[in-house]
Amino acid sequence: MIEPFIKELANTSAEGTLRNLRLVSGTTGRTATVDGKQIVLFASNNYLGLANHPRIIEAVIKSVEKYGWGSGASRLVSGTMPPHMEFEERVADFLNKPQALMFSSGYTANVGVITSLMGRKDNIFADRLCHASIIDGARFSGSRLKRFRHNDPDDLLRLIKKTGGKTKLLIVTDGVFSMDGDMAPLKELAEIAERFGAIFMVDDAHGFGLFGPEGRGTPSLAGVSDRVDIHVATLGKALGGSGGFVAGSKSLIDGLINFSRPFIYSTAPPPSTASAGVAALDIVSGEQGARRRKALHTNVGKIMAYLNNLGYDTGKSRSQIIPVYIDGAKSLDNGAGVLLEMGVFAPFIKPPTVPRGTERFRICVMADHNESDLAKLESAYRRLKEI
Ligand SMILES: Cc1ncc(COP(=O)(O)O)c(C=O)c1O
Questions:
Q1: Range of the structural domain that residue 23 is part of
Q2: I need a labelling partner for 50 at 20 to 30 A (CA). Which of 11, 26, 113, 235 fits?
Q3: Taking CB atoms and a 6 Å cutoff, what residues make up the pocket around ligand 1?
Q4: Which one of 53, 84, 206, 231 is the catalytic residue?
């Protein structure tokens, strides 16, 4: 019998980068039970607390009662149901784009759009810290992938100027970077895209619902929404559920329906997921969304101030994702134990998720965190300084 992975797992374990699943019980709120211990969770992308919002739960229940739990087929066969269409119309309207298309996840949305649009002779320029799904999409497409220095439009310019021939060009970036919490210089990137006739794509997974007017995201915050050709985001973070979508022109969406393999050859997301997305969008774009965003940004400000006062380096974060850089994996291992003892869970992120030498704790802030949660976090990081 051939046992898979044995050697690789042994190597990974020796390097101290072995990954393990962790059981988190309870609803996806600000507190949870991790490994049997009650803790305050600073690790969830449920930033606005919508994962267990009663209005969304009600929408899901009604949708399941009306449509059943499964879509029964891929979207092109018989899986397109009213909630999918409703979500797509609603999100396109929200982003002021002609059309949108729902995918099973943000990951498949990124892979689906890049692989269908870009071919072997084309050139993709991606920020060096782009999400893995963008990099995978670029690799699967067979295009030439050039990664510019993080948030460095000059480096992009240098690379794009070196690219000869008449090929299709794609410039792609995250809106908010998932491990660093900083934001892309979207205006500068849009200018370069226009100057060189490149397609401009933004994956706003961690910005959608949170930044800009009504939470339309980082393109809207930067005033470049109409210059973004492909707007990708997920229902799995601020919206509190799961699923992804792409918004853009009619020809982009027609192209995805015809050529995007992750869209074509996969069962459509459950209709109730789309119904939940519609209910979540209603909340995000309404008065309650504004209130939740304000609470989130206030919490972020307070936590940044605590950490910086304690002497921690939080990099260039401008968002609810706050990296706390700590030297060496060993300190991280000890530190994680200390944080858990103090009733706080913020995971440590090691290579290969982040480059070696940039290991960090990653704090994800939620609108629902209260004063006592913040005080707990501050005490835990104060204690961490002492070990
Ligand atoms: C920047 C970014 N893009 C895409 C994704 C993938 O989204 P999803 O979790 O919906 O697959 C993630 C989430 O992990 C992300 O952080």
A1: 16-45+289-386
A2: 113
A3: 105-107, 110, 131, 133, 174, 178, 203, 205-206, 234, 236, 244
A4: 206
